[in-house]
Design goal:
Elements: H1 2-23, H2 27-37, E1 42-51, H3 53-65, H4 73-78, E2 79-91, H5 103-110, E3 114-121, E4 124-132, E5 138-147, E6 150-158, H6 160-170, H7 172-180
Antiparallel strand pairs: 1-2, 2-6, 3-4, 4-5, 5-6
């Protein structure tokens, strides 16, 4: 009996570990990886929130109960999970030392994520990863920005292609202006 319980707990631990790796590292894991790679880096967590499937369902239900049309409801209906972490950087090595692929980049690639953008500017780095579903639609977005004073990590899961389409459909003129680089506010007069 004791051996069965130990085996069950070991299998449960292994499956939870593999599940985390198969999807993507959490925002916490990515900040840890950056600190591991650069021992002199120090981050102090300022904010962290995670809204999972159950909380998102509750939030969607509350929005549906609100009287009248709620701006962003169609977008919200497509999002399944949001995780955001923000850290104050108390110590950071020269960002020019961040060369090549990081471990979190290789973990994401192994789990089917693609790098959509990598930005290197003086004093900052940014990465954007995306992952599609079986039908080719956008399902996951992971953004990491590292600056001299702040590390921000954002992960959003859901039917993001439909969420983006809903956001554009809600305000098409504003979307066109933003793409063109114009001010999104309608001109006066």
């Amino acid at each position: 009996m004791k051996r069965t319980v130990v085996f069950f707990l070991a299998a449960l631990s292994l499956s939870s570990l593999l599940t985390g790796c198969a999807g993507a590292p959490s925002t916490e894991m990515v900040s840890f990886e950056i600190q591991r790679r650069f021992p002199e880096a120090r981050f102090e967590r300022e904010e962290h929130f995670h809204i999972g499937r159950v909380s998102m369902s509750l939030l969607r239900g509350l929005v549906r109960m609100a009287p009248g049309k709620v701006d962003g409801q169609a977008f919200l209906n497509q999002v399944r999970r949001i995780e955001v972490s923000s850290y104050k950087v108390s110590s950071l090595p020269d960002l020019d030392r961040i060369q090549g692929e990081t471990r979190f980049e290789s973990q994401l690639a192994q789990a089917g994520w693609s790098m959509a953008m990598r930005q290197r500017e003086e004093g900052s780095r940014a990465w954007m990863f995306v992952r599609g579903g079986k039908n080719g639609g956008l399902r996951n977005l992971f953004v990491v920005t590292l600056e001299q004073d702040e590390l921000t990590l954002v992960r959003i899961d859901g039917r993001l292609d439909k969420a983006l389409a809903a956001a554009i459909a809600a305000h098409p003129k504003d979307a066109i202006r933003k793409v063109k680089g114009e001010n999104a506010q309608a001109p006066a007069g």
